[in-house]
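@channel sequence for tomorrow's demo:
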Amino acid sequence: MLVTVKGIVIGRREIGDNNCFLDVFTDKLGMVEVMAHGVKKLGGRNSAAASMFSYADFCLNKKGTSYYTINSTEPIYNFYDIANSLEAFSLAVYFADLIKYCATSEEEHGELLRFVCMAFYQLEKAKLPLDFIKSIFEFRFITHIGFMPDLRACQQCACYTDDVMYFLPNEGMIYCENCFKTFVRGTDSFQIDPTVLHILRYVAYSDNEKLFKFKISPKYEKIFSDITEFYLQSQLGRTFDTLRYYKDLQLDYFNQEE
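structure tokens (generated this afternoon):
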């Protein structure tokens, strides 16, 4: 049975001299593991589409319930230039780990795939700070896979905004200052002002096409990064070694600058 999908390669494991397994995140099948025969041969007809972070049309031969092999490919775009920056590449690998851990198989993920490609494009072009791209990806990705926070209003009094509000990452909800002090006890929280709340709402609720078309001042980048990272980890109940590696690279860079 032949199945045609669009997908991006986010993992690759070498098998023997000429073959490899690919982890491909697709629009119609979600995460799939694909056997790619002969792609390591010089000039192999599917070698371009089988490289890391290649976005392509894949014609897959499905055997049984979930075994796939490549029949043919048609490259659409390859994010080669991400590798020009070690920091950007490490961040792309972190994104790939998130997708592999969270994305389901045999389900449609067209919108999420489109967003993933947009994020990789931003990493490649490097027009926005990497930490800002990371924050947008973390917060939007976690909402895409079913962990949408309720940022509409205070959970207690329905206040839409206030000079000081609190975001509770474990619960995925907000409280105004008065209700927080009155009703909330013993839980992790972030104190946020109206600007931070607007940023969170924008990233959670806007269309994909708008997500990388705004900028924030350095004043808000740090709190935005802290919130998105903590929220994602609290919802998933874990962190990732690739995130630690990305942070270590940043630390080494700042140490060199000093």
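heads up for whoever presents: Strands lie at 2-15, 19-26, 30-36, 54-63, 67-78, 150-154, 165-168, 173-176, 190-192.
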